[in-house]
Specification:
This protein is mostly helical. It has one domain. It is elongated.
């Protein structure tokens, strides 16, 4: 029993120490952000690397998630004779939950690991140490543009995922099951409010900050070995997924 309590205490201590280090790292990024925004080109390049290069997987997954929603939603609504509400069900599901959450998980798996691996390799090959020797701040030069690129790209990817998902749901509902197209879209216009759209975009922005912060933190603090970089990329995916789901619950509870 004492050994179990000791292990629990050590685990809790390590958790809060790590949370404190990430928080301090995030505050450093926030302090450097205003001046880094003046250097537009590096930020645009990172928006392209994290956002545009992720469009294929985001659009593909969004299409099939929307099509699955169309199939499952029609099957459930058909039991109660409310097939015309398929558009509303798909829109609210994508806007409030599936769009932001699935996009964040895909972002962490594709762009987050790329950010962590890139910065981690710069650490392992002494590029960051060389910058420090030449009096170049690696936080300002390397980390902040990549962080801002992820933060800006994530809401845009979320909006893209939701739009393509709605197209997939409409494709199944209207073209496959024969629901009236006018009824499909009129139900959406009549029930989906601006607050629902704002909720999805706010979640996407918050998840973008969290996933980007975790990715650049893990990469910047990776052990400078091949094994250390591999562990950093693995932690990026795992921690980002857990934090995304926890934040999703907290944001949903607050917005309700």
């Amino acid at each position: 029993m004492p050994s179990l309590l000791r292990e629990l205490g050590e685990g809790a201590t390590n958790f809060f120490e790590r949370a404190g280090r990430i928080t301090r790292f995030g505050l450093q990024l926030a302090a450097l952000t205003p001046t880094s925004l003046l250097r537009v080109r590096p930020v645009i390049e990172q928006v392209y690397n994290t956002g545009a290069l992720s469009l294929v997987i985001i659009m593909t997954c969004g299409l099939f998630v929307g099509m699955v929603l169309g199939l499952q939603g029609y099957e459930m609504l058909n039991r109660v004779g409310s097939e015309e509400y398929l558009g509303t069900a798909a829109a609210l599901s994508l806007l409030k939950e599936l769009g932001p959450v699935v996009t964040a998980l895909l972002f962490a798996g594709r762009a987050g690991t790329a950010l962590a691996a890139e910065i981690g390799l710069m650490r392992a090959t002494d590029q960051i140490a060389a910058m420090e020797i030449m009096a170049v701040d690696p936080m300002r030069r390397v980390v902040v543009p990549r962080f801002l690129g992820g933060v800006i790209a994530m809401p845009l990817l979320t909006a893209t995922f939701i739009a393509i998902g709605m197209f997939g749901a409409q494709l199944i509902g209207v073209q496959f099951f024969g629901i009236d197209q006018g009824s499909f879209w009129s139900q959406i216009r009549g029930t989906v409010e601006l607050d629902d759209v704002a909720e999805g975009l706010i979640k996407g922005a918050v998840f973008g900050v969290a996933c980007s912060l975790i990715a650049v933190y893990e990469g910047y603090n990776a052990v400078p070995t091949a094994e250390g970089v591999g562990r950093a990329t693995t932690r990026t995916v795992v921690v980002s997924a857990v934090v995304t789901l926890v934040l999703d619950y907290l944001l949903t509870a607050l917005m309700l």
